Amino acid sequence: MNRPASNIRRALSDATQRLGDRVDAEVLLAYALDKPRSWLIAHADDLLPLDYAAAYALLIEQREAGEPIAYITGRRGFWSLDLEVTPATLIPRPETELLVELALERLPTDRACRVLDLGTGSGAIALAIARERPASKIVATDASIDALEVAQRNARRHHIGNVNFVHGEWFAPLGDSCFDIIVSNPPYIESGDPHLQQGDLRFEPMSALASGTDGLDDIRRIVRDAGLHLVPDGWLLFEHGWHQGDAARMLLRDAGFVELSTARDLEQRDRVSLGHWLVSSGCHSPRSSA
Ligand code: GLN
């Protein structure tokens, strides 16, 4: 393509044709130019300098090869936060904001609560809760050091100081710490699900997506051990697949949780299950243990 310098409008329509998606074409050009997307409209007749055109062409090639937009640009919005994401982290999904909403409903604004986010990835859930409940203390774990580094950079970028990032699998690094609320968006896709070989999922960390033949291996571990780290009157909330609501509530019930429910996402699919913990087990004094 040895065309003379093109203008923004022309570059966008060429890219839209190649990618089959106008939004992707705009997001990538805005990224190449380091401008907001709205700038492109106002400057449609501006010439696109050749070095920017070359940079844009490379981005389009990456996208044509299937790479997710969030990994190409290294960013994804979640809640009110613009987050760094890398291939070490899952790309935050809008439906996961439901988990944040349900946790916030159970976190009073006038009291410091202790919150645990298991498998934090980019830190999306922990940081959203931390931002909304600045007096609370959040602990966020991940088995991936690379993911934790991304999450810590996200915390620093947003000046969020009430999250403590801890390395390890699920509850392993937590000793006998106690929490008022435990949240998680664990891996929950069946390991044989053909979707894992399609679209963005091909580029995301398998350890953040798949969890055994029925997708429930990690959820089983989380539900089994959560009671050891919850104060009486505590809550466990976790995300799962649209067809896993019944299984999720069954696991919660068998582990001793009560007031079980499953909330639906904006597309009316089962997405988050939750249970109330009333037992004095590992954590004795309600909402006051260290
Ligand atoms: N919600 C993601 C998907 O189905 C999976 C994320 C996860 O396993 N936690 O694409």
Secondary structure blueprint with pairings:
Elements: H1 8-19, H2 22-33, H3 37-42, H4 50-64, H5 69-73, E1 75-78, E2 81-84, H6 97-105, E3 114-118, H7 124-132, E4 137-142, H8 145-157, E5 163-167, E6 179-184, H9 217-226, E7 230-239, H10 245-254, E8 258-264, E9 270-277
Helix pairs in contact: 1-2, 1-4, 2-4, 6-7
This protein binds glutamine (GLN).
Protein name: Release factor glutamine methyltransferase
Pfam family, one: PrmC_N
GO biological process, one term: methylation
Question: Which tags fit this structure?
Answer:
binds glutamine; 2 domains; elongated; 35% helix; Rossmann fold; 10 helices; disordered C terminus; seven-stranded mixed beta sheet; alpha/beta; 290 residues; two-stranded antiparallel ribbon
